[in-house]
Amino acid sequence: MNRQEFLATLRKELSGLPQEDIERSIDFYSEMIDDRVEDGLTEEEAIAAVGSVDEIVNKILSEISLPKLLKEKVKPNHTLRVWEIILLVLGFPVWMPLLLAAVIIVLAVYIVIWSVIISLYAVDFAFVSCGVGGILGSLTYFTLGNVAAGILLIGVGLISLGISILLFLGFNQITREILLLSKRILLSIKSCFIRKVDAK
Amino acid sequence: MDIQLKRGLLDVCVLAAIKNEDSYGYQIIKDMKPYVEISESTLYPILRRLETAEFLTVRTAEHSGRLRKYYHITALGLKRIEDFKKEWNEIMSIYKFISREEDGNE
User: Fold this and answer.
1) Which of residues 147-186 of A touch B (CB under 8 A)?
2) The whole model's pTM is what?
């Protein structure tokens, strides 16, 4: 791949981003290639050193915010004509609920993710409470003179605490995986916006 | 290394690379190389982010018949480096405490 091809591929992959962002990325990467060539590398080597287009696009995508991407997608590429405005106004009852639904679905997904995380820690908290409650509660048995029940309660409390510690470690791991997964989902949502424009 | 931690560190590294004199993309990568390897695709979003945060400004200058972008650190950027050093002192004393604990167990 030569310099021209590389930059053309990059431009194609980035289409869907705001025009200014595209130009800036292209400027940046072409400057990088030029500087490496000036440093004594061949054009091929310089392009290989700059990295793959996929990697570049992924890094740019993970930085840009979803609303900015959406705005660019919705922005008309010419000024609206009168009949288009009329159509938009008349179509309001149709597109408004659809838009609202889309926003609510995204919101719901976030709530579900956080609910799972919160419920995991709630379970853990319950075990901790059992443990602490059991150990403290046993004191009343001891004061009442029922030593056997007191010891039993302490044992149960300690078991609960033990379980809670093990669960905490596991839940931390699960939470980390969930957050990573949600990040990956966001990235794939973003990239499908870019590709859609590309296919047009 | 933890991604969030590394991200924050690299931001300050890039600021440090342009601290003494204005620099350009490839020079920044070369200057950082002995200490930390950074790829173009990593550097680009960092520069954009720092520019948006007004830690640096960009100017375009001609260099052997083509354009090159030079990055200049702002007062805010210099302050960010100083803040980082202060934060780091705190982190270092925490680190010392953690290491001391380990030595004690041996």
Assistant:
1) none
2) 0.57
Q: Are A1 and A54 in contact (CB under 8 A)?
A: no
| pLDDT above 90: percentage of residues in chain B | 26
State the total domains in chain B.
1
Same domain, A114 and A194: yes
A21-44 pLDDT, tens per residue?
888 888 888 888 888 888 888 888
At residue A168, φ and ψ (nearest 5 deg) are -55, -45
**Dist CA B40 CA A82 (whole Å):** 46
Asked if A54 and A127 sit in the same domain, the reply is no
The answer for A 50-109 residues in CB contact with B (under 8 A) is: 50-51, 55-56, 58-60, 62-63
Q: What is the pLDDT of residue B104?
A: 57
**Using one digit for the tens of pLDDT, what is the confidence trace for B23-41?**
888 899 888 888 888 888 8
Residue contact B69–A29, C-beta within 8 A: no
Task: For chain A, give the secondary structure using H, E and C.
Answer: CCHHHHHHHHHHHHECECHHHHHHHHHHHHHHHHHHHHCCCCHHHHHHHHCCHHHHHHHHHHHCCHHHHHHHHHCCCCCCCHHHHHHHHHCHHHHHHHHHHHHHHHHHHHHHHHHHHHHHHHHHHHHHHHHHHHHHHHHHHHHHCCHHHHHHHHHHHHHHHHHHHHHHHHHHHHHHHHHHHHHHHHHHHHHHHHHHHHHC
Say yes or no for a CB contact (<8 Å) between A35 and B42.
Answer: no
Single-letter residue type at A29: Y
CATH of the domain at B48: 1.10.10.10
pLDDT value of residue A129: 93
